[in-house]
Design a protein that fits this description.
alpha/beta; binds nicotinamide-adenine-dinucleotide; 254 residues
Length: 254
């Protein structure tokens, strides 16, 4: 059972990350959440995890673009379970892509997972048990135009997960990626205006002709479905699953 273990979830003040934290708490895991937002909103989420599930919930505001802050957060939390989930999107043609946006997407979606693993693996090796789950994306397996930084970061993350799995295979540690299709979260909502602009489309056209166009089920994936897969990967039944990149995308990559 996972009861009494500690999970650190990066980027968990909203969306999929918050769903991971709540789903792990629901099976008795103490959690540390991370991410940006209004202090009062974050405190509300943190305290409701404790109230709803009777576990300890902490918050660490480490910035996923700062490797020293990432290492300090991991060392303070000493997690049994590390969920690398923080991510941002930017939608633009390559020739107009702002260099600082490229750097930020690579830092938050890819490099932060490397720095978090780098700090967490020694802690997990010492315990001979650990679980690392990274939120990749259907965009770790396939591309879409105008998302060069995101697609590059997620393909890179898939490679990092495979490498970390091989390096930890005999240490009781598993490392896997979960690759969702479109999940209805603030990240998706916020890219609609830029996609409207980049493709000269209405909001409805973006929803149906772009977002759900490639998702054969024509339904958004839910954060709770993604979180349930992560909880499964953390359990003993999943100890033989390592180095995998599991799709949960309504058939997008089929
Ligand atoms: P979201 O915007 O709701 O959540 C992103 C989280 O990351 C927030 O908690 C935010 O505060 C945090 N964050 C952003 N920049 C940060 C920084 N510099 N330091 C610390 N935290 C930071 O988005 P989401 O849709 O829940 O995305 C979560 C993950 O799922 C991302 O890696 C995303 O790429 C991936 N994903 C999302 C979808 C989707 O359709 N929503 C699909 C596939 C993959």
């Amino acid at each position: 059972s996972l009861k009494g273990k500690t999970a650190l979830v990066t980027g968990s003040t909203s969306g999929i990350g918050l769903a991971y934290a709540r789903a792990l708490a629901a099976v008795g895991v103490n959690v540390v959440i991370n991410g940006f937002g209004k202090p009062e909103d974050i405190e509300k989420e943190r305290s409701s995890i404790e109230a709803d599930f009777g576990v300890t919930a902490g918050y660490d505001g480490a910035d996923m673009t700062k490797h020293e802050q990432i290492a300090a957060m991991v060392e303070a939390a000493a997690p049994d379970i590390l969920i690398c989930n923080a991510g941002i999107q930017h939608v633009s043609p390559i020739e107009e892509f702002p260099p600082e946006k490229w750097e930020a997407v690579i830092a938050i979606n890819l490099s932060s997972a490397f720095y978090a693993m780098r700090a967490a693996i020694p802690i997990m090796k010492a315990r001979k048990w650990g679980r690392i789950v990274c939120t990749a994306s259907a965009h770790s397996k396939t591309a879409s135009p105008f998302k060069s930084a995101y697609v590059s970061a997620k393909h890179g993350l898939a490679g990092l997960v495979k490498t970390a799995a091989l390096e930890t295979a005999t240490d009781g540690i598993t490392v896997n990626a979960i690759s969702p299709g479109y999940v209805w979260t603030p990240l998706v909502e916020h890219q609609i205006p830029d996609t409207m602009k980049a493709r000269n489309m209405t909001r409805e056209q973006v929803l149906h002709d772009v977002l759900l166009a490639g998702q054969p089920t024509k339904e958004f994936v839910t954060s709770e479905q993604v979180a349930a897969l992560a909880v499964y990967l953390c359990g003993d039944d999943a100890k033989a699953i390592t180095g995998a990149n599991l799709s949960i995308d309504g058939g997008w990559t089929a």
